[in-house]
Design brief:
Blueprint lengths: L3 E2 L6 H11 L20 H12 L9 H10 L7 E5 L2 E11 L2 E10 L12 H20 L7 E8 L15 H4 L2 H9 L4 E7 L17 H13 L15 E2 L2 H5 L4 E4 L18 H16 L3
Parallel strand pairs: 4-5, 4-6, 6-8
Antiparallel strand pairs: 1-7, 2-3, 3-5
Amino acid sequence: MRGGWRPGLVAAAGLAALLLATGCGDGRVASARAPAAGGRFDGGAAMRLIRRQVAYGQRPAGSRALRRLALRLRPLLPHGRFEPVPGQPRLRNIVGSLPGRPPAVVLGAHYDTLATPKGFVGANNGAAGSAIVIEAARALARLRRPPGAPALRFVLFDGEEPARGLPEQHTDFYDAGLRGSRAYVAAHPQATRAMLLLDYVANRGLRLPREGTSSPALWARVRRAARRVGAGRVFPAATGTSIIDDHSPFLRAGVPAVDFIDWSYDGHSLHDGLRRLSPRAADAVGETVVELLRGWR
């Protein structure tokens, strides 16, 4: 998975009940109906960018494949630049920006993959979130936002996954993983007003209940934006498992943050491939994020 530490089988029975209640896994995703002004997010472009990332193969933090990919992703973000991850000389976050009033709203995802199992390509666990961040940034760069709108930062985090093993094998995952997000928060104190994290966001049958640690008020804003673009069914009125993920350093710093993650998806196995993704799911998330950030005051 790309998201954080899977807390073993904690609350498995509760999660199963949640999935039944929300209909996850039924193979259907509500289409992101375009707003009256027309669709703003290019779901087709996002899917092409997912495929482009997967074509690089396994891309663990610090690997040659990931560093080559980073060179392709950086110019796709507005004003894209690299930011180093202190103490990790081969790791670097990719940061884009759009102007506005500080502090900024951060939209982020990680772009590295698991180091194991061998051959893991991370179609949903890494590539999907990164692609939607990039395409949302490109859509927002074309839109006029209201006076006084906040600055926007688009961050692709490196080193979210641990250097070896699976996240659930690390009881200290917060310190073993999340290297890029912890570095970003440390480098930009007091610079973020809210954070949106995209993790497992493009799988078939996508359902995104509120992740257990995600800020309720911010999640309510997300759900309102989803309803405005016709994607409300993807965001049920339910609360799921609490997960340690790239939003966690922001929460610890006192920043409202939410994690878009369908925890029913098996993101730690070789099954995480392109055939399990849905263009309609990616579009629903992308339209929701663009709608939310477009009118943020």
